[in-house]
Amino acid sequence: MKKVLVILLLAVVGFYLADVFIGIGFGNDHFVKSDEIKPVKDIYLQQTVENLKVSNAVTSIVVNFRGFDTLGEVTVLFLSVTALGSILYRKRHHAGDRSVLFSASSIVTAGSKLLFPPILLLGAYVFIHGHLSPGGGFQGGVIIATGFLLMLLAYENYTVSHNALSIVESFAGITFAVIGLMGFMNGGTFLQNFLPVGTLNDLFSGGIIPIIYIAVGFKVAAELTGVIYTVLNEKGDQKNG
Amino acid sequence: MDNTYYDLLTYVVYGSAILVMLIGLYAVLVKKSLLKIVIGLSIVDSGLNLLIVSLGYLKNGTAPIFSKGFFELAADKPMVDPLLQALVLTAIVIGFGVTAVALSLVIRLWRHHHTLYIDEIKNLKW
Amino acid sequence: MIAAAIYAVVQKDLLYAVIATGIISLILSIVFYILQAPDVALTEAAIGVALTTIVFIITIRNTVRMEDESDKNKNIKSAAK
Amino acid sequence: MVGTPVLFIAIPLLAAFLIPLLGMIWKESVRIVPGLVLMYLMVLAVSLMGHVAHNGPIIEIIAGWAPPIGINLVFNAFTGFLVTLIIFMGLLVWLYSYRFKSNVEYEPARKYFILLMMLVTGSTGVVLTGDIFNLFVFIEITSISAYALTAFYTGRDSAEASFKYVMMGSLASTMLLIAIMLIYSQLGTLNMADVASKIHLMDPTLKAISFILFVVALGVEAEIFPLNGWAPDAYAEAPGPVGAAFAGIVVKAMLYALIRFTYTIFDLSGAFNLLIIIGLLTLVIAEVAAIRQDKLKRMLAYSSIGQMGLVMVAFGIGTREGVFAALFIMLNHAIIKPLLFFSGSYLVYHSKKKYISDIDGMGKLAPFTSLLFALGAFAIVGLPPFAGFWSKLSFLVAAADNDMVLIIALILAVSIVEIVYYMRVVNRIFFFKRTTGLLARRPTFNAYIVMSVLGIIVLMIGFFPDTVTGYIQAAADSLFDKTQYIHSVLTASIQ
Predict the structure, then answer these.
(1) Given a contact as 3+ CB pairs under 8 Å, which chains touch D?
(2) Three-state SS for A125?
(3) Rg (alpha carbons) of chain B, rounded to whole number
(4) Domain of A183, in residue numbers
(5) pLDDT single digits (tens) D146-179
(6) B101: which chain A residues are within 8 Å (Cβ-Cβ)?
(7) Which of D135, D181, D190, D299 to mutate to probe the B interface, most B CBs <10 Å?
(8) D229: which chain B residues are within 8 Å (Cβ-Cβ)?
(9) How much is the ipTM here?
(10) Number of independent structural domains in chain A
(11) Is A1 part of any domain?
């Protein structure tokens, strides 16, 4: 009666977890009331407008205040592409032996061709305007990757050059790291802003934030396309169902 | 909006987030199919993300974006916590990376065993 | 969303289960939007709904579609081998 | 100043992104560049250690925002000690596997070395970071590399071991994230020093719950019982050098995180007793399991888990001497376990099943490897002239100072178990007749160097323990000085 046991265990865990979170409360200020507590989010919101001149506070946190996390996160994606390649590697490579999800009709192929450029454009728009409106490098990169996904699904022999992917990926990653290191100029710190910040709500504002986000966008797009491409090229030995 | 409404919402939002996490956890612990386990892991991730984002929500809050519209229309409204949203962003991407790795392992196991049934794969002590 | 989660866990046909997880992500991204988190909503919509689902589906294509828990299913499969 | 701690992260990342490009031009570079990077980092670590010894801790601010706002890295005597250790081990593992992988084709080799470098970088980041969420990110970097390295061989069981690891690991990271959110929801900050200075304001129940979540989550990664289901399989199925890397690098970093939470961040009184109980359970169960193993690598894996239990108990004593002993054991373990893994994997190289019985009589076929294995075995069980003796001695002294008689008795009993199973193996190597026709494999030149270096260090620590005790003492002091840690982080500004 493993199932009953597991359900009981989960009920206990769930009860305590729910108890804790309902105690914290929803929609109100949950921080401990004390003079010592100054939630960093207030500082973030204030600094975003005053010093960075970035409209989207999430962007300013992701790219500037906690840019180191983002560097790590991009690395996680890079690693998972590498890991995928290493795990699925085998000696004989069946080129062009791709698993086909469905045989696309001419409507689908024509439609995909039509949709492909607008999707790329949308993705680019999203990551270029990451500091002004919702969206940014990750979102834009993912949108571009879905564009490639569409093409890969619609055309059986549509290929993406592996070398091109890794060149784009590497250059974007190097840009990020080098911009980070350039922060040391003028006695600054890693990832410190060294460009003028401009005015709020302008396209050219926020110093290095848009540049980093564009690099992140390219990198994420290349990496996710790589993930899809690697998995898609991996045909199982035997098919069922 | 009045407070009883928010009290009710507390139970609904947190309750559903935690329930989704538990359902995913159930799949991980009980199910015998490797793919079901990976599906369970991704469901746990979804529930967790909802939990974190709802933690950052504020009553009558507005999105943390200082657009032109914000200064004209909503300048007196509190902004929801941007930090938690940034963290969730990171967590989603990391979750995707882990899911992709797990799925590639599933494909590897399928190649060797031609089954996803956990009891047939167990060569090592579980 | 809860219904979709339960469906995803109970459903024996893995393809439907995966689509149910996609639906969870879709609802989740709408909820994120309501909770004033447009950035997260956008990410969740793109990654959760599109990419994760597709990677799952490709994996299912490469492996099996059914979660074989019963002996009957196993027999069919070994017969097919 | 020679450099700043952020280079420990930035340089390997830059190199990892560069390697695919360089690989297109010159294929051999994918093997060489990681080694060069690690060598540079080793130089950096040593010079920064010298700097810290004279000028006090270095607080590196990132993105120009002083600590409660931005992320910071802390390089003090304690973290510096661990970073140096981690990078040194990474360098040895690289050297060992440099030729080992020469029969592997270009693509997997490139990935292997990138993953290995990122494993080291992730662990370094875990140790250096001063921010809870950043810690989570680095733990994920480390564990994704670890998943992939576990499944590196295309054999049938390695993927299964790795899958188990992925399952445990991602559940652990879920718990870690919940715990981080609990802390943030109460204190409104993610900086470790800031959290530590405000933790007394937190609701006691929430504090306890988040501490337990942290312990469970990090316990999975640091192979603490009963959460270590993944560890023996991962060790046994991963390539030989990777098993050594897990023992020498990953576990150390995760244990560091656990200790940082117990000592600096939380102020719970029951935490130390919890550590002792968990540690003792881990120790006893792992050693009993080790004696029942018939495969060499699994035996070593269980022994490694047991050692981690010992370290936990030593940290749980909660005194300066206890911390000293724990760090000493960690150091010895980080040097001896890789030696055992390296030499052990050569001893069973040609054996399909890797059973212990396959190494009967290896002493005559491969005298050098066998001798080193024996040296490692003697050292780890704590026989007098070798390295392990001093760490065990300091541990027993620390326990005796606190009148923990029961613990001492238990540890001694477990040590006997340890001696029994290691001596059984050594006995088989030298005094049993060769039953299988398998030949010994000659270690490569690099492997010879690596194993000799490790052997020399073991002997050196054994005969001249004073060479390292100074550093360990400084590290222990800096871990203990909680107020100084908080103060130095919170008052840091751009130099």
Answers:
(1) A, B
(2) helix
(3) 20
(4) 31-232
(5) 888 888 776 667 788 888 888 888 888 898 998 8
(6) 80, 83-84, 87
(7) D181
(8) 126
(9) 0.87
(10) 1
(11) no
